[in-house]
Amino acid sequence: MKYLIGNWKANKTLKEARSWIEEVKKEKPTIDKRLKVVLCPSFIHLTLFRDQMSELTLGCQDLSPYGDGAYTGQVTARMMRSLVEYTILGHSERRRYFQETEIKVAQKAVQALDNGITPIIAVDADNWRRQLNALDEGMINKSILMYEPPEAISKQIGPIGKGEPAPIDEVKEAIVKIKKETEAPTVIYGGSVKSHNIAIFLEEPLIDGVLPGSASLNAAEWLKMIRMANQTIIKTTETP
Ligand code: PGA
């Protein structure tokens, strides 16, 4: 199974989300059964997606570290469980701009797993051991890890960023190490993945998928990435 997980980050009004949906629906992309396509828009878009695109698997980009209760501004895993199957946790932007610590990430992962939501836990090149420190092996086993060096993230210039992904050999080396030391079954790559480079990552058997951010904002680019991912999966599994 390969994952293609879009991360909209803090983008799009409801109106903009509606036009993205309309554009994507026009094409009705075929999706190979070995490809899992997930979109993580903002919380405010989730019910729109459920109503307008019920076939698309959804994720959110964060969760409360606590359960329901007196936690103003938070969205809990129990609220989300009927809407999403996945949640991104510990994205480098959250660690950097919102002071998210590994303890908080672990608390959020507990909430997610207790509510049947699979965490997609982001780690980077230099700090991944510490970033996973507060998670026990069982939790890592049930999560998806995302290797994403922050310097590989696209700068948001226009609808599609202009960043450069990390070199494939570096990604492979990091993922081998992470898999070996943590026994994580699923590790994906994130950072400037676009339709023109998605195949490089998906062709590699060690890499279980990709998480494009800015490229997922553009409907035509999203459709192209699905097409490329489908083709790559078919090509790499063909018997000679
Ligand atoms: P990017 O973002 O594809 O825009 O680089 C990926 C991510 O940080 O989620």
What's the CATH H-level homologous superfamily?
Aldolase class I
How many helical stretches?
10
> Major sheet: order of its strands?
1-2-3-4-5-6-7-8
CATH level 1 class label: Alpha Beta
Q: Rough shape?
A: globular
Unreliable spans are: 157-161
Return the string of H and E elements: EHEHEHEHHEHHEHEHEH
Calculate Rg over CA atoms: 17 Å
Indicate how many domains the architecture comprises: 1
Mean model confidence by pLDDT: 94
Number of strands: 8
* Straight-line N-to-C gap: 20 Å
Largest sheet: 8 strands, parallel, barrel
CATH architecture: Alpha-Beta Barrel
What name does the CATH topology carry?
TIM Barrel
List the bound ligands. Answer: 2-phosphoglycolic acid
Residues in β-strands, percent: 15-25%
Helix- and strand-based class? alpha/beta
Helix content estimate: 25-40%
How would you explain this protein's 3D organization?
The radius of gyration is 17 Å and the shape is globular. It has one domain (2-237): TIM Barrel, CATH 3.20.20.70. The chain has an 8-stranded parallel β-barrel with strand order 1-2-3-4-5-6-7-8, surrounded by 4 helices. The protein is an alpha/beta fold and 240 residues long. Helix 1 packs across helix 10 (219-237). It contains 10 helices and 8 strands.
